[in-house]
């Protein structure tokens, strides 16, 4: 090993005691008992032991009041705050809360009708799987039609998938309607951008981000609540009229939930972004139609 590398490894981190300078206080490589230096020790050190040495090094550079001497490290509360919220990236996936399957799961807990809840929620989960929010793109709101469909199925007792399909088809426009509501809300909140820029420039005016976020939530929550109440009331009327017309014909149709899931899986297929997959599905649909005519 060159002399300057050996001396650098012996010095270790500045501020460490003499007994920890060799290899930063970490265990040496098990295959190199006589090795020294930061490179050889880091290869054999585990992540846990390295974290222990780093933590001890930071604690030695802190005063009794918890502040660092000549260093801008995070204090204990800030480290805990980061550790807590970093769990949302790996352990708790909050975006799953706005998925149709999650909504159907909680609706099934409260109503006990897991079969219908799973059937309706999985239909909408597959139908709009290809559409997701990215930048300025606002996909159809999937929660509104799911919740409205589940409410109609529960209110009218539509246990048969053929009858529940009427409520689901009638609730499809709600996805586009509430996406439009979200777009209008975003356009309304564009006025807050100037206030945010003024606040960031510290010109003595404008609103801080916390106040802007609170104001945006106080506007969006009642708007969505009122819009959904009116939409659900109209949907109940439409479904009642539609059931009076098509229920005699649909009562004899042997339709099951997998049939609806296959239709909705077109959205899952489009999410693949693979043209050969599209061709395979089209060929399968054509073969199914031809086989239907041949059997007749």
How is this structure best described in words?
The chain is built from 14 helices and no strands. The protein has helices at residues 3-11, 18-21, 38-44, 47-60, 76-90, 100-111, 114-127, 143-156, 161-171, 173-189, 191-200, 209-250, 257-270, 275-295. The longest helix has 42 residues, at 209-250. Helix 7 (114-127) runs antiparallel to helix 8 (143-156). The chain has two domains: 3-90, no CATH class; 94-295, no CATH class. 19% of the residues are buried. The termini are far apart. By secondary structure, it is mainly α.
Topology:
Layout: H1 3-11, H2 18-21, H3 38-44, H4 47-60, H5 76-90, H6 100-111, H7 114-127, H8 143-156, H9 161-171, H10 173-189, H11 191-200, H12 209-250, H13 257-270, H14 275-295
Helix pairs in contact: 6-7, 6-8, 7-8, 7-13, 8-9, 8-12, 9-12, 10-12
Tell me briefly what this model is.
It comes from Fundidesulfovibrio putealis. The protein is mainly alpha-helical and 296 residues long.
Q: Could you tell me the strand content as a percent range?
A: under 5%
Counting structural domains, the number is 2
- What do the pLDDT scores average to? 73
Helix content: 55-70%
Helix/strand structural class: mainly alpha
**Low-pLDDT residue spans:** 3-45, 63-72
User: What count of helical segments does DSSP give?
Assistant: 14
Q: Overall 3D geometry? A: globular
Listing every helix as H and every strand as E from the N terminus to the C terminus, the arrangement reads: HHHHHHHHHHHHHH
Cα-based radius of gyration, to the nearest Å: 30 Å
Number of beta strands: 0
Question: What assembly state would you assign to the polypeptide chains in this entry?
Answer: single chain
Biggest β-sheet description: none
The rounded distance between the terminal residues' Cα atoms is 85 Å
